[in-house]
Amino acid sequence: MRRTLPLIAAALLVLTLTGACTSKSAAVAQAKKSGKLAPKPFCQAAYNLDEAVATVKNSKRLALLTLVVDRAPAEIRPDAQLFLTGFQRAERGEKITPAQRKRYEQASNNLERYANDKCALFKQNQPPGGDM
């Protein structure tokens, strides 16, 4: 069981960065409508997390995710904080109910979509001439 908890935490983080869900939160919809880009410090933190997700240990992911939360714009901060809470709980080995997991995954997906929409996160690593 102890061995699977870090895997759960990593899976939650990967869900954030792969867009596993298609529903939209009000925050993401509002941000998309406004046409505003996210602040550069938030985008840089999200980009750094995206780049490191597959190659660093959970403790480093936690530090990067905390930075994303600290720099998150007000419209997405609640989702960012909720996702961070879920990641921390999984890291500590706390029991997470299916309902809680669903909430954490939804927050993760909302954060991923927001970063993608407002920072063009996934377009930054696109190969030349590639279309996403």
Can you offer a commentary on this structure?
The chain is mainly α and 132 residues long. It has one domain (4-18, 44-121). 67% of the residues lie in helices and 0% in strands. It has helices at residues 4-18, 26-34, 40-52, 58-71, 77-92, 98-119. The termini are far apart. The model is unreliable at 1-7, 15-24 and 126-132 (pLDDT under 50).
Helices and strands in order, then pairings?
Blueprint: H1 4-18, H2 26-34, H3 40-52, H4 58-71, H5 77-92, H6 98-119
Given the helix and strand composition, which structural class is it?
Answer: mainly alpha
C-alpha termini separation: 38 Å
What's the SSE pattern?
Answer: HHHHHH
Q: Extract low-pLDDT stretches.
A: 1-7, 15-24, 126-132
Mean pLDDT, all residues: 77
Question: TL;DR of this structure?
Answer:
This protein is mainly α and 132 residues long. It has helices spanning 4-18, 26-34, 40-52, 58-71, 77-92, 98-119.
